Amino acid sequence: MAFIHRRGLLLAAGGLTLASLTGHARAQAPAAPAAPPTGPFTLPALGYAFDKNEAAIDARTMELHWRFHHAAYVNGLNTVLASQAALASMPLDELVMNISRAPENVRTQLRNFGGGHANHSMFWEIMGGSGGEASGPVRAAIDRDLGGWGEFRNRFNAAAMSVFGSGWAFVTVTPTGALAIVTKPNQDTPLMDGQRVLMGNDVWEHAYYLRYQNRRVEYVGNWWNVLNWDRINARHAAAVAGTLKV
Q1: CA 200, CA 184: separation in Å to the nearest integer?
Q2: Is it the case that residue 19 has pLDDT exceeding 50?
Q3: pTM here?
Q4: pLDDT for the residue 10
Q5: SS3 at position 179
Q6: Which of 37-41, 60-64, 79-83 has the lowest mean pLDDT?
Q7: Mean pLDDT of 197-216
């Protein structure tokens, strides 16, 4: 009974029902769902099919995570900004980096919804690949700053496992291309500390629970199989060029 109750809570938190889990995810590249309410931000397209990350994340989890969870952050953010014209004109990265300057009564919502939108936009971008070891400038930075490939993977996995409850493990990148590993709770992001994000893994239970249940360690280990190192290298180049946003 405890297991059923917990699953029910997870589904309810994402606005889902048990009936919504019975269908098969579509294999084609998904289009963004209709997005109420209107506002400055929209749900970004995945750019690949729901089943593209099957080596780590099942297609149904990908669909639910993107279509419902991420969409909820976008819609929540637009709702908050409907009464905040000055904030609504800001790019997402600047909005999240300047939460402390926002009116106090909307800061928590901006933190949750804005951080959630930024984190997930990054998350979809860096996946959809064939994994393997890092290459190019990112590999050189890993070897220089994080002890080499094996040490980096071990440290990053340990960081992901150390997150208590819901949160993220990130690799940050400086304008000189230097890397560091950090963790954040809930939907907080290194952007809130003035840092840029190279890559990150979502360790909220909704990111993996349908396939792995409580086996976060298995999910964290498999996640490396779907990373797109070309896109991660592009993010690294953008950070050095000063054009990396979220």
Answers
A1: 10
A2: no
A3: 0.87
A4: 39
A5: strand
A6: 37-41
A7: 98
Which tokens belong to 136?
């190019």
Please give the structure tokens belonging to residue 72: 């909820």
Q: How far is CA 230 from CA 70, 135, 161, 200, in A?
A: 24, 8, 26, 15
Rounded to whole angstroms, how far apart are CA atoms 162 and 91? Answer: 31
Structure tokens belonging to residue 82? 């409907």
What residue segments make up the domains of the chain, in order of their start? 136-241
- Per-residue pLDDT tens digits for 72-107: 999 999 999 999 999 999 999 999 999 999 999 999
**DSSP states of 172-203 as a string?**
EE-TT--EEEEEEETT--GGGGTPEEEEEEE-
CA 159/CA 181 separation, integer angstroms: 8
What are the tokens at 92?
Answer: 């997402």
* HSE, side-chain direction, 13 A CA sphere, residue 137: 17
CA-based angle 217:221:222, to the nearest 5? Answer: 120
Residues forming beta bridges with residue 173, ordered by sequence position: 179, 196
Percent of the chain exceeding pLDDT 90 equals 85
Enumerate residues 6+ apart whose C-beta is below 8 A from 15.
68, 72
Q: Report, at the CATH architecture level, how domain 136-241 is classified.
A: 3-Layer(bab) Sandwich (3.55)
Q: Which residues contact 215 (CB under 8 A, 6 or more apart)?
A: none
Mapped onto helix, strand or coil, the DSSP state of residue 201 is strand
